[in-house]
Design goal:
It contains 3 helices and 9 strands; from the N terminus they run βαβαβββαββββ. By secondary structure, the chain is of the alpha/beta class. The protein has a 6-stranded mixed β-sheet with strand order 4-3-2-5-6-7, with helices on both faces. It has a 3-stranded antiparallel β-sheet with strand order 1-9-8, covered by helices on one side. Helix 1 packs across helix 2. The C terminus is likely disordered. Bound molecules: inosinic acid (IMP) and magnesium ion.
């Protein structure tokens, strides 16, 4: 598995340190509130798990899974709900937890969908931000790291469902995805 990694971009220690900072920031911003953290499955599962342990105010969590890629190499901007939330979000202070914002189309579609359910507030927290790939302007409230336009894996992120268990963020070797990145959905 490690031999498929071209380069480690962010080490496990750097991820840990940055998540600690994000946790402190969120704890401060939401003091006296009871935020609902929505984890977008599957890529954000490790990020959510580590982030909540760095937040020292009461919170609740929920999970949603969406499909966004429609078998294309790029996001479609349409999201299909594969697994919906179990928590009503009206009047809640929602923070959407994502692994990576690339074109921004998925996050834009998710926030538009959640807004229809009338949360009190909604913010976006992503571990990674591939800002130069953005196709739509979205406001990211918290991010862990800005990364260059490289296909990355590890710490929750996959290529064809592999590599999520790597403890670091690495760039995938080109020869592994020879024919091009052809993800079926935004998992
Ligand atoms: P967007 O709609 O283009 O912003 O796509 C976001 C989704 O695409 C993320 O939630 C990931 O699931 C996936 N994605 C985008 N870039 C990468 C990458 O470099 N590695 C793994 N997944 C990625
Ligand atoms: Mg994702």
């Amino acid at each position: 598995m490690n031999s498929d990694v071209k380069e480690v971009l962010i080490t496990a220690n750097k991820i840990k340190a940055r998540i600690k900072e994000l946790g402190q920031e969120i704890s401060k911003d939401y003091s006296n509130k009871f935020p609902l953290l929505i984890c977008v499955l599957r890529g954000a599962f490790l990020f959510l798990g580590d982030l909540v342990r760095e937040i020292d105010i009461p919170l609740s969590i929920d999970f949603m899974a969406i499909s966004s890629y429609n078998g294309q190499t790029e996001s479609s901007g349409q999201v299909k709900i594969l697994k919906d939330l179990e928590t009503p979000i009206d009047k809640r202070d929602v923070i959407v937890i994502e692994d990576i914002v690339d074109t921004g189309l998925t996050m834009d579609a998710i926030t538009r969908l959640l807004i229809t359910r009338k949360p009190k507030s909604i913010k976006i927290c992503t571990l990674l931000d591939k800002a130069e790939r953005r196709k739509i302007n979205i406001n990211i409230d918290y991010y862990g790291f800005r990364i260059p336009n490289k296909f990355v894996i590890g710490y929750g992120l996959d290529y064809e469902e592999k590599y999520r268990n790597l403890p670091f963020i690495g760039e995938l070797k080109e020869e592994v995805y020879k024919g091009g990145i052809n993800k079926k959905d935004g998992k």
